Amino acid sequence: MRSKWSMLPEELRLQVLETLAHSSFEKHGLTNYALVCKSWKSIFEKANFRSLTIDQEDFEHLAKIPKRCWPYVKHVWLRIELEKYYPMLRTGSVPTLSNTVDEKHARKPNPYIGMALANKSLGFDNLAATFLVEASDFFQAYKPEWIWRDLRSLTLTSYLLDPKRKVDEINGMLQAAGVAALAMPMLQTLEIWNGGVGHAAVFAYHAERGEAAISWTSTWDLVFNPYIVDVWRKVGYKNHRCEKLGIEQRLIEDTDAIRRYVDVIELLRTKKHVISRQSLDELRLSIESLMFLDRASMYLLCDNTCLAQAIMAAQSNLRRTAAEDALAEFLEKWTGILGKRLRSTSRTTRTLATLSLALSIILGAEGSRRWWKKRRHENEQGRKLVRTNSWLHNKDGSRTIYVPYKDGTSKVVINTTKPLTFEAHRRLFLNPPRVSGLGDGTVPSAQTKPGLNLAFLHQFLSLMSIMIPRWSSKEAGLLLSHGVFLMLRTYLSLVVARLDGELVRDLVAGQGKAFLWGIVKWCGLGTFASYTNAMIKFLESKVSIAFRTRLTRYIHDIYLNENLNYYKLSNLDGGVGQGADQFITQDLTLFCASAANLYSSLGKPFVDICVFSFQLYRSLGPLAWIGLMSNYFLTASILRKLSPPFGKLKAVEGRKEGDFRSLHARLIANAEEVAFYGGAEMEKTFLNKEYKSLKSWMEGIYMLKIRYNILEDFILKYSWSAYGYLLASLPVFLPAWGGVGGAAEMAEGGEKGGRERNRMKSFITNKRLMLSLADAGGRMMYSIKDLAELAGYTSRVYTLISTLHRVHANAYYLRSGQSELYSLSDVQGTIQKGFDGVRFEQVPVVAPGLWPQGGEELVESLSMIVRRGEHLLISGPNGVGKSAISRILAGLWPVYRGLVSRPKSIGEDGIMFLPQRPYLSPGTLRDQVIYPDGHVDMREKRKSENDLQKILEAARLGYLPDREGGWDTRKEWKDVLSGGEKQRMQFARLLYHEPQYAIIDEGTSAVSSDVEGLLYETCKERGITLITISTRASLKKYHTYNLQLGVGDDADSWEFERIGTEREKMQVEKEVQDLRERLAQVDELKKRREEIEKELNAVWTEKGDLLDAPSYIGIDEAPVSSEESIEA
């Protein structure tokens, strides 16, 4: 052997020795190799001392290790054997570490070992304990006076990190870990991990350089509850002053690769604190190199050829696994069966089968081609419509829009609510039944407070008629599917309870085969139960979104329509104040989420209570059932009586949230004006005051919740648990009253120990049923608070919709004892649409007040008529009602008396209004010109982008497409265009729509006089009759008539006259003569001014002597202009 070894090259010999030294499993045998020669000693001595495993009694032998060998030591594994510990309940002391227990028991997690390690680790710098210690035991042993002052890293394992465990158990353990981490001021890294075949998970906390983060890496998803995030945020802030806490979650998809703990450690990246890089490589290569090592050791007895053959044999054996062999055998078997069947069929059968297969392939390919063609056409159409910000009109009145989704578009069909639906729902929202407490003549009722009463029931059912319009709707199908899964979960709970009892019975009886079969059934049941729970949460989210979609579209249809409800809701009615956006967005979302959750939090527990109560009645007898029912009614009455009015509190909180948001919205809308005035401090005062009010209210709610939660937790958790144990003991202590369990207790005979096993099974089953029953009852009791909050959200949403119905139907009626003049209940005028012109007959111009207040009369009675081609200028000082005329004509303000006539349509061949503040919509540059039309409407009018370019040139904006990048450019146009460009854009819209009549309210105040004249002349050339509201006298030359408001001593009269008459000329000449007379008095006024100044500058003594003027008073005065003399 020695001759053959020396014949090998030196490099190969070193490689064989290194492989043998670093890959051997029997480390204690390396010492014999080191004694062969010095060259072998240098290699095997390093491997021998690289990892040391010592017991407690071997500490004194460490000093015998040669000094030259200490640099080779990389890891020292200390084996501590613990004796069995039997705790004394009287002392309550923490167990200590000792050295007299068997190793196989020490490898199992023991709660006392975890408690002892937690106590002894207070002085450690780093700690990594895997599988010997359970993490939950370690953290539960924590006491408030403990402090790990130097602990920087902590790595533990926990059997709770398993996909089969409950989420609440995992969250509870992680929360306990955070509480203990608050006592670790130097902690930088904490890892809790676990793994098995097909699953792995690790929770990690890292903090360094002012940053802290928690992460969850596993083969399944876990949702952290808010308490976990809060406690770990406190850990980061207390220990490292980290203001923010990062949260990261990573899902491991390749679960098939997890077969050994090596794979778990590698996937979870816990190598740094669990095992070294070198040791990890050893574990990973342990199985793969086993056969190779056997051949390598045999090389000492064979030649090179035998070694090569051994390596090739090992590689060939590792080429295919047993699973691959089984798969190959399965394929070969069924391939042979199919081939045999085909060979036994006739030629006609095979021909027909071939033709059928070919035909199905052809038809499938053609169907796929048509589907793909249709899909591609929809995608192209969708991208085009998204680019042009347009939509499609359908024959049934609905609209099809495309919204961006991932890399393409998604098609959405919006069906409008029919007017008959609004008529049918008006009775529910405007005329509620008197028994509901909402019929006092106000909508919403001022006498009804949000809460669990008949008013809430009527409000909720009224909203449900919108959310579920018919039983064949999508929402009804989702609720039915949700209900099926909820019932299925109830059934699974019964099966789990029964299976749990059988497992414990078989375990106690020592029936291994039955116990293993029960474990298999448990795993299969767990898979199905996990799918059921996931579907319940998914369907609940779908129901919430479906409810919100129904309500949002319903509100949009009644909010945005030709009746201008979106304007009247805030400016005339005032039922929801200025916070309509708060109602439509936040309140509606909270209501839909709460309503969807109500189905599972109230209906499911009720069914569970009925089913579990019946099962317990059979198992425990009538006495237990009576006790359960009495406990429920007693608990419900106590909680109902002591429960705060959460509905009212939530409603008020929502209103205060809306007020706070409206203040911010007002600041954003008027930011420029506030900045010019320098009013930041004043606005901050308003915001802080409103926020303080909101904060105080929310703190009050939280204080009430604390008291209520203390009572609720004590009753629902601890008192119910104690009561459940009492009921579970009935079959044992009172078998005559114990139902089926009591009958089994009283039965005689049976095998030895059978009664104890059946008693254990019954107790475990009944305990599981009572836990599920307690959970259902707890959710029923918790739902009282949820119902109260839902009542608050329901009141808010019902208030919004009822107010919208009141505005839509103009349902304002006189209340008893009220007779406000010019209130919304005092509207007696008429609007006539379809008149070829604009006419006012005995119409008072009134600025309306918010309902039920009356309005302010600006003009007593206005009568005029403007026909086609007769342009009208409405002039007068500010505040006399010029813009009010346009609002009455547009239908924004009511016609309290008289008759108003106007064209029927708005836009083409009708009437169009240009408001005082130009409005630029979101969208493309094209949308700004054609607003309120869309791209499809523009095509229907047979207008192209060339026509739009000509319109912009006529409005002196022809440079915009080139400057802004084309017609499809999207920008925030209100910030891009200047004031003059905004007003000219309004004229571009006017030229695009070409109405017969146009009302222009201060439409050229930011435009130069020459461009102003060109715009007016262009409109007149296109046949547009202009009605202009302005204070500019220069605009008279473009108009035929002048309506002057604010005439008379009280500024409450008006004059309507033709421009250019003899009377007007005489008035102009009179004004010129008056100016000449005032200019002629300039010299006299200057002389009088000098006399007054001399008298003011003179100084007298007490004796009446006149003193000279002081030297600093100039004698020569600056010349006074004629304008200044006129003002004097």
Structural overview:
With 1128 residues, this protein is of the alpha/beta class. The protein folds into six domains: 30-64 and 74-79, no CATH class; 111-275, no CATH class; 378-416, no CATH class; 420-654 and 696-707 and 726-809, ABC transporter transmembrane region fold; 830-1059, P-loop containing nucleotide triphosphate hydrolases (Rossmann fold, 3-Layer(aba) Sandwich), CATH 3.40.50.300; 1065-1093. The chain is 57% helix and 12% strand. It has 40 helices and 23 strands. The strands form six sheets. A six-stranded mixed β-sheet has the order 3-4-5-6-7-8, with helices on both faces. Strand 9 and strand 10 form a beta hairpin. The model is unreliable at 84-107, 276-321, 748-752 and 1115-1128 (pLDDT under 50). This is Peroxisomal long-chain fatty acid import protein 2. GO terms for molecular function: ABC-type transporter activity; ATP binding; ATP hydrolysis activity; long-chain fatty acid transmembrane transporter activity. Belongs to the ABC transporter superfamily. ABCD family. Peroxisomal fatty acyl CoA transporter (TC 3.A.1.203) subfamily. Residues 484-715 form the ABC transmembrane type-1 domain.
